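My main concern about presentation is that the manuscript never shows what a single data entry looks like. For the editor and my fellow referees, an illustration may be useful. For illustration, here is how one protein appears when written out as sequence plus structure tokens:

***
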Amino acid sequence: MKTWKTSRDPDYAAKKARVEHLYALADGKVVLEEGEPEVVFRLDEFGPLNLQPHPGRQWAEGGGKGKDPDREPRPRRRVTYTRPHGVRHLFAAYDLAKDQLYGHVKKTKNRSKFLEFCRYLRSLHPADVRIAIICDNYSPHLTTKRCRRVGTWAAANNVEIACTPTSSSWLNRIEAQFTALRHFALDGTDHLSHKAQGSMIRRCIIWRNKHAADHRLRTIVNKANVA
């Protein structure tokens, strides 16, 4: 499997080594040298966020033989053959050193929105503090021959954009945070508007940052974290 990935991405080893080095910096396992990022963010998009019933556990009165004969039947899951309200996307970043999650819900997922969120992350620290943003190889994250906005912005703002190797998004530790976010904010819900769904996600992020040591949260994250 590793040979296949290397053949698909000639820079596989170099990208993987750089990401792991940035993790070591964030974890305090290596000495910070001059020119190295002092802050490391893991960034990714979560979605698309649809308005549909999400399966999950919830409190409900018992059924079957133990059912109360006077109780009305449980309502069936809402059918969503058509979804005219579109989708939303969550741009999120995870600061491992601070154990904090940041997120903005957007209508679209493109290079402009990516840079908009990167500018927000840049504003969290003084301009002289070098930061690194780890993300996957989704095209809006990259500098291309046709559009060099990402590279130009990063060079002008003391930012390093580090991409995970092809087919290795599991190296991005924010994926485990998404597993917890899905569990606490979406499982067992059926929001009728994007405003209500976005509010639930934002409240979950606020709760998560205030209770980063919560046993239930740590159990889900540790189980999902592979990098």
In short: Residues 1-7 have pLDDT under 50 and may be disordered. The beta strands are 39-49, 88-95, 100-106, 131-135, 159-163. Residues 194-210 form the longest helix (17 residues).
